[in-house]
Specification:
Blueprint: H1 16-27, H2 32-37, E1 43-50, E2 54-55, H3 59-69, E3 74-77, E4 84-85, E5 90-97, H4 98-128, E6 135-137, H5 147-156, E7 171-172, H6 174-180, H7 183-192, E8 199-202, H8 205-214, E9 218-222, H9 226-236, E10 242-245, H10 253-257, E11 263-265, H11 268-271, E12 278-284
Parallel strand pairs: 6-11, 7-8, 8-9, 9-10, 10-11
Antiparallel strand pairs: 1-5, 1-12, 2-4, 3-5
Helix pairs in contact: 1-3, 1-4, 3-4, 4-5, 6-7, 7-8, 8-9
Length: about 280
Amino acid sequence: MAAPNASTELDLTDLQEIVDRAIAEDVGDGDITSLAVIGKSENFEGVMAAREPMVVAGLPVAAMVFEKFDPAIEFQARATDGDRLQKGAEIAFVRGPAVALLAAERTAINFVQHLSGIATLARIYADEIAGTGAVLLDTRKTIPGLRKLAKYATRMGGATNHRMGLSDGVLIKDNHIAVAGSLTEAVHRALNAGLQNVEVECDTLDQVAEALASGAQRILLDNMSPAKMREAVSMVGGKVPLEASGNVTLETIREIAETGVDFVSVGRLTHSAAAANIGLDWSWA
């Protein structure tokens, strides 16, 4: 089977369990309808197409799904992950045993629709802050078990990944500060533990000043107004990177980015992206 132009950004070996689980969930003991009404020798071919403008993502995953059902299935990508597509654009061509194709169809499309929806929303947000110098970040607000795929999709849309999980990035939040006793104490404990790139969430300008004095290496401005963010940018003076976060919308992100912050993180890229509208129309081979 011909695989699509798989991006080196996506490690397919990590996806085996996810794809196997998705197939088991949908197919169970078998596609009883197709097995009853379609002969084993029948063949189908079809075209996966965009039914609305989108940024496509997830084609290597779709190819994996079809291959797991039957290696005889031919999958030809007509686009590459990260491409901007217009309504009606062909995404992929598939051909092979009809029973296997129909059984694999929904799982394959579900992956591409979900990931393309995330990539499309990320591209809309990234385009909105183009030219400001600010970098769009995603967050950990992902569907459990699908984080690597979701964060891959945000990259395909032009965002940059924040930490993948709790083990690969330091972010001291209000509850850490409450337990440690103070922001300064929390930062010192993190630094004394040998942690690097220690980031602190700050709700006020006083906390920003304290974080800077305590040795924090990055500061997150949480739910601050653009006016307060501009004050924070002036106060920090480029000494450490600043990230803006908290209820960022498409209507507000440009103003936030123009305050001079280095990063803007947006949770809705992954927790609120609508699935892209993709169809797969069949014909007899």
